[in-house]
């Protein structure tokens, strides 16, 4: 099974494969993602070694913006990976909340929420500010390759850290984010240094 990957604070990358990949059949899947971050993120498609296309992103500078998720619908080749680059204002709570679903060419429907152990995270040690331009696919690809080799700041891809409370319980902000499934949990990278 593939994994989901992402980054946060400074610049973190989260990643996940469009699950159920069948390389023998070059078919397209329909995917839908609802996502928000405290604070900034960008969403990409790619392979296990590269980001090939930026789909969208947002800068949530105001706290009220954090609680209004963005929605993306896209047709993507079966077997593509999802990457989310995320960065924060380094203040108070930080994280990513995702409701991702995919309907493949065979009629199989799958949902993977943030907090699911299929997500992985890597830390880049790059520091982006709120409102900074998102990494280009080429910049993200260089970070993916470092993470795959285990030679980046976090020593490769790591398990995510998640909030104890689900979205329906208010998560890390004590606010339910509308549209995102109640079972989703805020997720982030834990450096082990209190961040």
Describe the structure in your own words.
- With 195 residues, the chain is mostly beta strands.
- The protein is 9% helix and 38% strand.
- It contains 2 helices and 13 strands.
- The strands form 3 sheets. Strands 1, 2, 4, 5, 7, 10 and 11 form a 7-stranded mixed beta sheet that branches. A 4-stranded antiparallel beta sheet has the order 6-3-8-9, with no helix packed on it.
- Strand 1 and strand 2 form a beta hairpin.
- The radius of gyration is 15 Å and the shape is globular.
- Mean pLDDT is 84; it is low at 1-10.
Query: Structural class, please?
Result: mainly beta
Number of E-type strands: 13
Number of helices: 2
- For the termini, the CA-CA separation is 29 Å
Query: How would you spell out the order of helices and strands?
Result: EEEEEHEEEEEHEEE
Q: Which residues sit in consecutive blocks of at least 5 with pLDDT less than 50?
A: 1-10
Q: What is the mean predicted local confidence, pLDDT?
A: 84
Shape: globular
The biggest sheet, with number of strands, parallel, antiparallel or mixed sense and barrel status, is:
7 strands, mixed
Strand content: 35-45%
Percent helix among the residues? under 10%
Q: Radius of gyration from the CA trace?
A: 15 Å
């Amino acid at each position: 099974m593939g994994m989901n990957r992402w980054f946060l604070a400074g610049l973190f990358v989260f990643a996940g494969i469009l699950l159920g990949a069948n390389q023998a059949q070059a078919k397209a899947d329909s995917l839908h993602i609802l996502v928000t971050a405290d604070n900034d993120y960008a969403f990409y498609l790619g392979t296990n070694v590269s980001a090939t296309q930026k789909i969208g992103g947002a800068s949530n500078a105001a706290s009220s913006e954090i609680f209004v998720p963005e929605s993306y619908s896209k047709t993507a080749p079966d077997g593509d990976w999802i990457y989310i680059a995320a960065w924060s204002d380094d203040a108070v709570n930080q994280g990513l909340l995702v409701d991702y679903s995919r309907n493949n060419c065979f009629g199989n429907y799958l949902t993977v929420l943030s907090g699911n152990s299929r997500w992985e995270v890597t830390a880049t040690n790059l520091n982006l500010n709120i409102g900074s331009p998102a990494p280009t696919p080429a910049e993200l690809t260089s970070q993916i390759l470092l993470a795959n080799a285990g030679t980046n700041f976090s020593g490769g891809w790591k398990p995510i850290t998640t909030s104890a409370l689900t979205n329906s319980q208010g998560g890390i902000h004590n606010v339910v984010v509308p549209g995102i499934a109640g079972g989703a949990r805020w997720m982030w990278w834990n450096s082990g240094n209190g961040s």
